[in-house]
Amino acid sequence: MARERRGPRLSVAARSVTAVNRTDRLYALVEDLRAIAPRCRSARALAERFEVSVRTIERDITALQESGVPIYAEPGRKGGYAIDKKMSLPPLNFSPAEAVAIAVALSQAGDQPFGRHAHSALRKVVAAMPGPEGELARELARRVQLVRRPGESGEEAKPLGAEHVSRAIEEALLRRRVLRLDYADAKGALTSRDVEPGVFLGGRGGFWYLVAWCRLRDDVRVFRLDRIAAATVTAERCPERPLEGFATDVPEMIVHGTLLD
């Protein structure tokens, strides 16, 4: 019988797991079976993985079953131990847009019970994202800003506008693509123009705005979302422009960025 060796606890994601103390090994066994559920792993394979004897694995599995963990044995040459798939949860992979959506909601919520914990949860979500996805989420978050007067708690939110319009703007910001807009001014006059989206701006009067470089006017312009009649994402990638270049002159207003960290 192979002797058990004590060593540091390692992630079950490793290719092989150095022998650990029994409590940690029981936990690691459950996580290992959860990771492959509903497939099974033989006692011999588990023994090699944890560098213990087959008999030790069998005792560990029995202990787990007696404690209520839903592990069962699959008979046959390719059988082994498996865990009830109901106990196996898929990984929670948030997209950059989903992470920013959570951040925007928290930014508008103001002071609230458990608010500190909500922001802590968001930081954990972002920290768990793969490196490139996390950086993309941070870049997108910098392009969503809220404005309000000092001491103001916020105004009642107005309709965002047509759903296809907001979706197109979100996609263009995320993919850094040029947008083609049909826009009605305050008098209802409609113009078509290509714009380079810079910032989603919300809070002023309860409306949401798109701050963008307008190629028709050759300057930065602010477009109220509910006045955009149509928006199409083009295949053209936006040239790089400093985010500061989209800063808007809003007198007596404080601009709050959307924070992920």
From TrEMBL:
Boundaries of every WYL domain copy: 167-233
Keyword line: DNA-binding
Regions annotated as coiled coil: none
InterPro entries for this protein: CBASS_pafABC_assoc_protein, HTH_11, WH-like_DNA-bd_sf, WH_DNA-bd_sf, WYL_dom
Gene3D superfamilies (UniProt xref): Winged helix-like DNA-binding domain superfamily/Winged helix DNA-binding domain (1.10.10.10)
MF annotations from Gene Ontology: DNA binding
Entry-linked PROSITE patterns: WYL (PS52050)
Keyword Transcription regulation: no
Occurrences of domain Helix-turn-helix type (ranges): 39-81
Name recorded for this polypeptide: Predicted DNA-binding transcriptional regulator YafY, contains an HTH and WYL domains
Organism of origin: Nonomuraea wenchangensis
